[in-house]
Write a structure and sequence with these properties.
CATH topology of the largest domain in chain B: Rossmann fold
CATH architecture of the largest domain in chain B: 3-Layer(aba) Sandwich
Strand order of the largest sheet of chain A: 3-8-9-2-10-1-11-12-13
Helix content of chain A: 25-40%
Number of helices of chain B: 11
Shape of chain A: elongated
Strand content of chain B: 25-35%
Number of strands of chain B: 11
CATH superfamily of the largest domain in chain A: P-loop containing nucleotide triphosphate hydrolases
Structural class of chain B: alpha/beta
Number of strands of chain A: 13
CATH class of the largest domain in chain A: Alpha Beta
Oligomer: heterodimer
Largest sheet of chain B: 9 strands, mixed
Bound molecules: iron/sulfur cluster
Number of domains of chain B: 2
CATH class of the largest domain in chain B: Alpha Beta
Strand content of chain A: 25-35%
Radius of gyration of chain B: 22 Å
Helix content of chain B: 25-40%
C-alpha cells in the first residue's frame, strides 16, 4: 500500500481541487484530509460520518491556589511565557508539563482537553479520514498523525492499494507530520513569485525526509516564463516536474457546486488533471 | 495601532492586501508574520539592516551519566525522546523546547542547548519600516519568531500592518490577539467561506473586532455577505476578479503599483478601520 500526500508550500494553489479529482480517478483507495487547520476536502466529497471520536489535544496546566506558595518557579521555567503573575494563559500553554515537574508544592496538575473530533466518513469515492478542531484548537502535528493513522487502519482493513492525503500548506509541524514515513508527494504550485519561493522551501523539507516529489503547476498559462523557472527549480532540487494545469473557469464553477472538476466537464483543466494522474501512475508515484 | 491581516484559507490575497495597504498609508510598519512562507519581500524588495537570530532550547544527553531509565522519554509530551538499548534518541523536529526532560532526569544527564530556528530581519522598503520572520525549513514551529517580530514593532511608529500566516494555528492567534483590528481576506468560494468562518470564530474568541475583504469578487459574493450579515461583521472592500490583477501579482507587482486607482480605496479602508478601532 502506498500513500501519496499532496502539498503546496503556498496556500490556495489548488491542492484540494487536484486531490478531489484524484479521488474520482483512483481505484481502490482511502482518503485523508490532513490539512487539519483548514480542512476543505469534505466540501467536495460530502462525507457522511460513520465513526466519530474525541481528539485530545495538548494538556492544560492548572494551578491550585490553595497549595501554591507563590514561589514563582513555574513562571521561571516555562519556555512559552504561558504563566504570568502565577496565572496560566491557556492560549500559550503547550501542555508540556514542565511546570508541574518543577513545582515544589505539587500545586500544578495537567488536565487533558478535548480540542476536536476525528471522523471516519463514507463518501461517494471511498472512505475519508478527517478531523474538525474547535475554534482556536491547535492544529498540531499530533492531529495530523491521528488522521493518517486512522486512514492507514481503514486501508489495511479494506485492503486498499493507496491512501490519498491532502497535506497542509506551509512548512511547519503539520506539514512535517504529513510527510513522515511517506514515499511520494505531489506539490501543487502556481506561477507567481510566492508560488516559486514557497515551493523551494517545502521541497527542502520533503528532501530532508527523503520523500520523492513531483511538482505540478496550476494556472500555468498566467505566466509561462515563471512556469518554466519553477520546473527548472524542481529538477534542480531532485523533484520531477509533472503536469501543467491551465487557468480554467470550470474549476471555480465546479468547486462552487461541490463537485471535483473531472466529474462535470471535459474542460481543459479536467483533461490536464487526468493526464497528470496517468503520469503519476507511470512514474510509480501512486 | 496594529492591524492583523489574516485569512483562514491560504492564497486568498492576504499578502496583496497587506502590502498594498501598507503602501497606501503614511509611515506604515509592514510586518510579515507568515514566517513559514514569508512573501511580502517579493513585492517590496526591502533592504535588511539588522538580523536577530531566534533560538529554541533542545536537549543534549550525556550518555556517560545516563542509566537509560526512560524517565525523560516517558515525560516528553511530544514524543521527541526515545530510549532504545544504550541510546537516547532526540527527534529535534518533534521537540517543542520545553526543557522539561532536563528537570525530570534523575541523573542530571540532560542539558538544554540553544538551537537557532530562524531569524527576524528588520529593514526598510520604500520609506516604510519592514520586519519579517523566517523559519528554517525542517523546523516545526514559527511561534517564537512571530513573537519576536511583534516585539520589534515600534509602538511610537506609524500603523503596523501585520501579514499573518494562513490558518488559525497558534502563531496566528498570537498575532490577532495582539492586534486592535483583524482584517480577514477571503474569496467567494465554498473553501473560502469555510475557512473564513474558522478565522471569524478565532477573532471573536479573542475579542478583536474584524472586517472582511472579498477578493476575486463576482457572482458568488452573497455566500460571504450572508455570513457577514449573520455575524454583524462588515465587508470593507471588494477586489474584483480580473486576470490582469493575477498577472500583475505573478510579476511580483503590488496591486497599487499596477493599478494606482486602488490607492484611494485602500486609504479609505484604513480610515474605516481607524474609525472602528476608536469607537
Ligand atoms: S531520564 Fe536521564 S538517565 Fe533516564 S534515560 Fe533519560 S537521560 Fe537517561
Ligand atoms: S525539551 Fe521538552 S519537548 Fe524537547 S525533548 Fe525535552 S521534554 Fe521533549
Amino acid at each position: 500500500m502506498k500513500e501519496l500526500v499532496i502539498i503546496s508550500g503556498k496556500g490556495g494553489t489548488g491542492k484540494t481541487t487536484v486531490l478531489g479529482c484524484f479521488a474520482v480517478l483512483a481505484a481502490n483507495k482511502v482518503l485523508a484530509d490532513a490539512d487539519v487547520d483548514a480542512p476543505n476536502l469534505h466540501l467536495l466529497l460530502s462525507p457522511e460520518p460513520l465513526e466519530e471520536s474525541d481528539y485530545h489535544g495538548v494538556d492544560l496546566a492548572a494551578i491550585d491556589e490553595e497549595t501554591c506558595t507563590k514561589c514563582g518557579r513555574c513562571e521561571e521555567v516555562c519556555q512559552f511565557s504561558a504563566i504570568r503573575d502565577l496565572r496560566i494563559q491557556p492560549r500559550r500553554c503547550e501542555g508540556c508539563g514542565t511546570c508541574a515537574v518543577v513545582c515544589p508544592e505539587q500545586a500544578i496538575t495537567m488536565t487533558p482537553q478535548v480540542t476536536g473530533q476525528l471522523y471516519l466518513s463514507r463518501t461517494r469515492y471511498g472512505p475519508l479520514a478527517h478531523a474538525r478542531l474547535v475554534a482556536g484548537g491547535e492544529a498540531s502535528g499530533k492531529l495530523v498523525t491521528e488522521v493518517r493513522e486512522l486512514a492507514h487502519r481503514v486501508a489495511v482493513e479494506r485492503g486498499a492499494d493507496l491512501i490519498l492525503t491532502d497535506g497542509s500548506p506551509g512548512i511547519g509541524c503539520p506539514v512535517i507530520a504529513s510527510l513522515s514515513g511517506v514515499e511520494a508527494t505531489l506539490a501543487v504550485t502556481e506561477p507567481t513569485p510566492s508560488g516559486l519561493h514557497d515551493l523551494e522551501r517545502v521541497l527542502l523539507v520533503a528532501a530532508h525526509f527523503q520523500v520523492r516529489s513531483a511538482v505540478c503547476v496550476n494556472k500555468w498559462d498566467i505566466n509561462p516564463q515563471l512556469t518554466e523557472e519553477i520546473e527548472r527549480l524542481a529538477r534542480a532540487m531532485g523533484a520531477m516536474p509533472l503536469g501543467r494545469i491551465p487557468f480554467d473557469e470550470a474549476v471555480a464553477e465546479s468547486t462552487a457546486e461541490g463537485i471535483p472538476v473531472v466529474e462535470v466537464a471535459d474542460s481543459p483543466a479536467a483533461r490536464a488533471i487526468r493526464d497528470l494522474w496517468t503520469d503519476m501512475g507511470e512514474n510509480d508515484l501512486c | 495601532m496594529k492591524i492583523a491581516v489574516a485569512s483562514g484559507k491560504g492564497g486568498t490575497g492576504k499578502t496583496t492586501v497587506a502590502v498594498s495597504l501598507a503602501l497606501s498609508v503614511p509611515d506604515a510598519q509592514l510586518v510579515d508574520a507568515d514566517a513559514e512562507e514569508p512573501n511580502c519581500h517579493l513585492f517590496l524588495r526591502p533592504s535588511i539592516q539588522r538580523t536577530i537570530p531566534v533560538y529554541m532550547m533542545v536537549p543534549h544527553v550525556d550518555l556517560t551519566k545516563c542509566d537509560f531509565c526512560r524517565k525523560c522519554a516517558d515525560f516528553c509530551a511530544f514524543n521527541a525522546l526515545a530510549v532504545v538499548k544504550e541510546q537516547v534518541l532526540v527527534f529535534p523536529e518533534l521537540c517543542h523546547g520545553c526543557t522539561g526532560c532536563v528537570y525530570v532526569c534523575p541523573r542530571e544527564a540532560i542539558v538544554a542547548r540553544q538551537r537557532q530556528i530562524g531569524e527576524v530581519e528588520i529593514g526598510a522598503a520604500r520609506g516604510m519600516v519592514f520586519i519579517q520572520g523566517r523559519l528554517k525549513p525542517t523546523e516545526p514551529s514559527a511561534v517564537r519568531i512571530v513573537r519576536e517580530e511583534i516585539a520589534q514593532i515600534d509602538p511610537k511608529g506609524g500603523p503596523a500592518i501585520i501579514d499573518a500566516s494562513p490558518g488559525t494555528a497558534c502563531a496566528v492567534q498570537d498575532t490577532i490577539g495582539q492586534s486592535q483590528f483583524c482584517l480577514l481576506v477571503t474569496e467567494p468560494t465554498p473553501f473560502g467561506l469555510h475557512d473564513l468562518k474558522m478565522a471569524m470564530d478565532v477573532a471573536q474568541e479573542l475579542g478583536v473586532p474584524s472586517g472582511v475583504v472579498i477578493n476575486r469578487n463576482g457572482a458568488r459574493d452573497s455566500i460571504i455577505e450572508d455570513e457577514c450579515r449573520k455575524r454583524n461583521i462588515p465587508v470593507l472592500l471588494k477586489i474584483p476578479f480580473d486576470r490582469r490583477v493575477a498577472e500583475a501579482y505573478s510579476r511580483g507587482q503590488p496591486l497599487v503599483d499596477a493599478f494606482p486607482e486602488w490607492r484611494e480605496s485602500l486609504r479609505s479602508l484604513y480610515r474605516e478601520i481607524e474609525r472602528r478601532v476608536m469607537t
